[in-house]
Amino acid sequence: MLQPFEEPASDLSGILGKHIIYTYSNGWEYEMYYKNSDTVDYKVRSGSVGGRVVKGQKVSIRQLQTALPSEKSEASESEMSLYMISWVEPTGTSVVQVLNLNRREVRTVILFPDWVVKEPLKTVCFQNEHLDLMRSYRDQGPTYPIHPKIMLGRLHFIEHCTLDNEHVINPQHPNL
């Protein structure tokens, strides 16, 4: 029996191990690795926080369907390549990403706390080496108002890697 707020299991085989690079319409470029069923690593390659690297970010990943399949037909392959990924960072930033691998699109909502908008360069680092500092910035705030940013991006690189590969996103390696 499902607990309150618990979702049924999803087939994540189409996203796990994927390493992608995408660019949003505002020019921000990101590199993302879906490391396993609850973890991503990523690098911000350009934009207001370009140079930021995060490894081991805990996430929730679910497969989405554009419509529930009827009893007579199975979901199409394009429906099966649609995923929602969400997480909350130690900075207080919340992210919801919808990834369509077949269409090579990513749609993202980022909810930035006020302190990140006012001082984005404080987050530009290899976050894993500064977790306590990021949490202290978050706790000092100001958090409000929250600044939502809705973005559409195009994937221009997709490869499949092994799961839990620590070398896909390398904080010491410059952008390729």
Automatic annotation (TrEMBL):
It comes from the Eukaryota. One of its GO terms (molecular function) is carboxy-lyase activity. This is Phenolic acid decarboxylase.
